[in-house]
Design a protein that fits this description.
Elements lengths: L2 E12 L2 E12 L3 E6 L5 H8 L5 E8 L2 E4 L8 H6 L2 E4 L11 H8 L11 H10 L1 H5 L10 H13 L5 E5 L7 H16 L3 E5 L3 H7 L2 E6 L2 E7 H6 L1 H8 L8
Parallel strand pairs: 3-8, 3-9, 6-7, 7-8
Antiparallel strand pairs: 1-2, 1-4, 4-5, 9-10
Helix pairs in contact: 3-6
């Protein structure tokens, strides 16, 4: 697979803090790339740097063959990055609690100004992934359960076709049944050849959906390879992550 997203030597500073220390990362087109690592390793900062929410102080971010991030004029503003086909689901989910499920999806759809202007076939496909959203279509998003809010956050990212999804810890705090639903949804997105860069702490989910994996530590990528190879090597898991996937089945 050709790379859709490439980070080369990316450093990111937030105020006085040097968070990313030369990140090299390749995300192949049409695959799910897992971004793993201990808390504080720099995973969320990597996603925010890709989206231009924080600017790289050195290095480059290239998407679909073109520069979108880096110091100075190399940095595109976040709206321009989104318009190139990248959607970002933050750990906070970023939904609007006072608006209905329907209104949240309209806000995320660039081509629709009203609910009845949403692509019906696309919406039916989203409902197939997350049936609860159809049931609670007119409910305020703030009244949804945690799992339903996460479904809405991901639905906002895919209500229109995107080239790349950046998703930050979608399973955090969710019940196992909801996590299984997310696994099914991510596998369906894979079948649709959607490219995903997924930060996750749940190793069952990582093993179930990941094609490739990059492991971060102290602001650097310290391992990159096939997710299946990492899942099969408990010694490597212990060295990179401090625990074994077998304990999280």
């Amino acid at each position: 697979m050709k790379p859709l997203l490439e980070l080369a030597g990316v450093h990111t500073h937030i105020g006085a803090y040097h968070i990313l220390h030369g990140v090299d990362l390749v995300v192949p087109e049409g695959e799910v790339t897992m971004l793993l690592g201990r808390n504080g390793a720099g995973k969320s900062t990597t996603l925010r740097t890709i989206m231009g929410l924080w600017q790289a102080s050195s290095g480059s971010v290239r998407f679909d063959g073109a520069a979108i991030g880096g110091p100075g004029n190399a940095q595109l503003p976040t709206p321009a990055i989104a318009q190139r086909g990248i959607a970002y689901v933050p750990e906070s989910m970023g939904i609007f609690g006072d608006l209905t499920v329907a209104e949240n999806l309209v806000l995320a759809a660039r081509s629709a100004a009203r609910v009845d202007a949403l692509d019906k076939a696309r919406l039916d496909w989203v409902f197939g992934l997350f049936p609860a959203l159809k049931k609670f279509w007119l409910y305020p998003a703030g009244k949804l359960s945690g799992g339903q809010k996460q479904m809405l956050a991901i639905a906002r990212a895919i209500v229109e076709p995107r080239k790349l999804l950046l998703i930050d810890e979608p399973s955090k705090g969710l019940a196992p049944s909801i996590i299984r639903n997310l696994v099914e949804a991510f596998n369906e997105l894979k079948r649709q050849q959607v490219t995903i860069l997924l930060v996750e702490q749940n190793f069952m989910l990582a093993k179930a959906v990941g094609d490739s994996v990059a492991v971060m530590d102290d602001g650097r990528v310290v391992h990159a390879g096939a997710m299946a190879e990492l899942a099969a090597d408990e010694t490597l898991q212990q060295r990179l992550l401090g625990l074994a996937l077998g304990a999280h089945q």
